[in-house]
């Protein structure tokens, strides 16, 4: 009778369940370890390690490049999915010496808060607060953070003008600044949300240089590109005072019709944004830079001479 009773007890892979009234997954750590060790012989035949089985049991594909590490963060190989940020024009108002004025030669350009002018200028740009964070990744170095690179950022005012170029603010140098990437490849800027002027999707310009010493020569830039801003956030900002003309300008352009982002709809340049109008917005983008490729951006578009104005009909333009 005792043997007959044992034959009726539930088993799993020939092993008696210590908790016959529970599911197989609820039999306890000892049972799980026993199952793992029993399978090791078969796993070695299939070429899969015990660690791989553990990942599979947790619902994680051990071959996936995005499999989490023990800390719960993506493994370094996850960066292999990041592509090089597209090279884009610096536009006619770079202020880097390639088209007239050169703010990068001025002492004080390395700063995180770019809302006010520095040096002999004293103006301050008004607008909805915006914090910008760019994370620069060294694709040629295996997808590691690009620590130590210098990132120059510039963008237009809430009226659509560019300091150093637009009538009335040629003596100002606000909304321009340089930061040096930290060990995580991150640079941060405090600024204001830019306008939408006629013919262009709302954007932020940036150039990446090998180091701080290189910023005095615009030809040394290893990447020149632009950050695209999401439509819903733009619409919320442009409904506030000071951005009035941006409403009509935004209605006349799309990411796919824009002459910069239009080739792919800004798929690798569209920032992620959190926040609101009252508290300000946090704008973030991860930027892949490949120093083994030849930079093709940085040139000003036709007709953008020194002292030029934003496109005709745009805020701040003629």
Automatic annotation (TrEMBL):
Entries under Gene3D superfamilies matching the protein: Aromatic compound dioxygenase
Domain Intradiol ring-cleavage dioxygenases: 121-198
Biased composition (Low complexity): 64-83
Keyword Oxidoreductase: yes
Keyword set includes NAD: no
Gene Ontology molecular function terms on file: ferric iron binding; oxidoreductase activity, acting on single donors with incorporation of molecular oxygen, incorporation of two atoms of oxygen
PROSITE patterns assigned: TAT
InterPro entries in alphabetical order: Intradiol_dOase_C, Intradiol_dOase_core, TAT_signal
Residue ranges of the region described as Disordered: 61-105, 290-318
Alphabetically ordered keywords of this record: Dioxygenase, Oxidoreductase
Skewed-composition ranges (Pro residues): 308-318
Pfam families to which the protein is assigned, alphabetical: Dioxygenase_C
Protein name: Intradiol ring-cleavage dioxygenase
Naturally occurring in which organism (per UniProt): Beutenbergia cavernae (strain ATCC BAA-8 / DSM 12333 / CCUG 43141 / JCM 11478 / NBRC 16432 / NCIMB 13614 / HKI 0122)
């Amino acid at each position: 009778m005792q043997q007959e009773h044992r034959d009726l007890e539930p088993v799993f892979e020939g092993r008696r369940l210590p908790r016959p009234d529970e599911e197989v997954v609820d039999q306890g750590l000892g049972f799980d370890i026993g199952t793992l060790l029993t399978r090791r012989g078969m796993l070695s035949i299939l070429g899969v390690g015990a660690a791989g089985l553990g990942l599979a049991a947790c619902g994680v594909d051990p071959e996936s490049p995005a499999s989490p590490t023990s800390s719960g963060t993506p493994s370094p190989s996850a960066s292999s999915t990041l592509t090089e940020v597209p090279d884009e024009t610096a536009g006619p108002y770079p202020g880097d010496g390639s088209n007239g004025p050169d703010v990068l030669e001025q002492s004080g350009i390395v700063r995180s808060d770019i809302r006010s002018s520095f040096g002999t200028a004293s103006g301050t740009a008004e607008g909805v607060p915006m914090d910008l964070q760019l994370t620069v990744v060294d694709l040629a170095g295996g997808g590691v953070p690009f620590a130590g690179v210098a990132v120059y950022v510039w963008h237009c005012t809430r009226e659509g003008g560019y300091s150093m170029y637009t009538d009335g603010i040629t003596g100002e140098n606000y909304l321009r600044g340089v930061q040096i990437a930290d060990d995580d490849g991150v640079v941060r800027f405090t600024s204001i949300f830019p306008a939408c002027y006629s013919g262009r999707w709302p954007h932020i310009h940036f150039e990446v240089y090998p180091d701080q010493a290189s910023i005095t020569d615009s030809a040394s830039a290893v990447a020149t590109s632009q950050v695209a801003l999401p439509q819903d956030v733009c619409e919320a900002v442009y409904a506030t005072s000071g951005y009035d003309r941006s409403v009509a300008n935004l209605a006349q352009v799309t990411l796919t019709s824009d002459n910069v982002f239009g080739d792919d709809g800004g798929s690798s340049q569209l920032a992620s944004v959190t926040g609101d109008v009252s508290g300000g917005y946090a704008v973030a983008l991860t930027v892949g830079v490949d120093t083994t490729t030849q930079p093709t951006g940085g040139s000003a578009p036709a007709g953008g001479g020194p002292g030029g104005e934003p496109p005709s009909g745009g805020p701040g333009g003629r």
